[in-house]
Amino acid sequence: xxxxxxxxxxxxxxxxxxxxxxxxxxxxxxxxxxxxxxxxxxxxxxxxxxxxxxxxxxxxxxxxxxxxxxxxxxxxxxxxxxxxxxxxxxxxxxxxxxxxxxxxxxxxxxxxxxxxxxxxxxxxxxxxxxxxxxxxxxxxxxxxxxxxxxxxxxxxxxxxxxxxxxxxxxxxxxxxxxxxxxxxxxxxxxxxxxxxxxxxxxxxxxxxxxxxxxxxxxxxxxxxxxxxxxxxxxxxxxxxxxxxxxxxxxxxxxxxxxxxxxxxxxxxxxxxxxxxxxxxxxxxxxxxxxxxxxxxxxx
Length: 299
Prior knowledge:
This protein is an all-alpha fold. Helices cover 79% and strands 0% of the residues. It is built from 15 helices and no strands. Helix 3 packs antiparallel against helix 11 (186-208). The protein starts with a helix and ends with a helix. The relative contact order is 0.22.
């Protein structure tokens, strides 16, 4: 009932809040010395019980009501969420957080492609133009001298590639989630999607023979922070909102992660954009505001 009265009413305001929480992911991830699969497995291990217990104890009927199609879309969403996390946390260890965030923000193109060519749904030309301006502004940030005085990643080109793949996985994850949430209750979807993602990380740990233990205490503190701020405050909130706003809206606002990450990088990592970088921030922010206006007007 709470989801229908609160999340549905404030979904379009909760999505930007989730973006702000998510923008901490790259910064916190870059501070962790443990490998990407340990970060992903750890943050999900901490966050998962908050969604598993309510569903398993009080809402098993919602799981029983799921169709084969619902299960397929939910599990696929979890698999692509795993792909996003793995490539994203790998990227922020190899390149600068701002560049990685910008390249990962290209996922609206994936969602747009799926919406138009796979699910055969109409998208207004104004929405498409707004999305392209967001990506254009993000591109300016990427190719500007946005990290003067900051440490350069160990392999920027490889990090940029991982960040781009992270964006592709994010777009597909949003699209599958949007389809699943059409029929699956929000709390149930979040639990099962995160569970599928957690299982993927567990398998990755076993296959690579990587231990989740033995890292500095600070690593685990950062991972716990990511679990609450980024996993619960961002991804869980995104998934709950998917039942009330479409995937293009969520995905496009999520591309604002690059903008918030830039501002946070200035405060926390002392990575200040150049004048050209600021221009990219302004263009992308203005396009986000315009897109939000179009969405609210249902154009």
